[in-house]
Specification:
Blueprint (H helix, E strand, L loop, with lengths): L12 H21 L2 H4 L3 H11 L3 H5 L8 H16 L7 H35 L10
Length: 137
């Protein structure tokens, strides 16, 4: 059965999205406040060092084989706009990590919304009704 629910029966998406974001933002801000040494260690520190030391995309791709190129290339891509405002150095490293965290958070929220819309269309024929926006939270 592929019945389409009437728009009046479909709950509004934006209040549910706002609820999810209002829960995620305080947690995100807390994590950003714990200090750089507690947030960046292990592999994340190795990737950050690659991005800081890279002078070109070829330098980033030089690590292929030892590491995957995706995240260092992402960091290098963020570094360009960041350095338009402030040069990347030891005194601006925490700000750079915060910018990367904000960009990753935004990507996560947008991809979650896109995933919800796609899943809503996929499950509608099986449920006989649209997926409830609570799935976002």
């Amino acid at each position: 059965m592929t019945q389409s629910a009437s728009p009046s029966r479909t709950p509004a998406l934006w209040p549910w999205l706002a609820a999810g974001v209002s829960v995620a933002v305080p947690w995100f801000l807390y994590v950003c406040s714990v200090g750089l040494p507690n947030r960046v260690r292990g592999d994340a520190l190795a990737y950050l060092r690659m991005a800081v030391n890279a002078r070109s995309l070829a330098d980033v791709l030089g690590y292929v084989g030892d590491r995957t190129p995706g995240f260092p290339a992402f960091l290098y891509a963020i570094r360009g706009p960041f350095e338009l405002v402030s040069p990347l150095g030891p005194e601006t490293l925490a700000a750079f990590v915060n910018v990367v965290a904000v960009v990753l958070f935004a990507i996560h929220v947008v991809s979650s919304v896109i995933f919800f819309f796609r899943m809503r269309e996929i499950v509608r024929p099986w449920l006989g009704a649209p997926l409830h926006p609570a799935a976002l939270v």
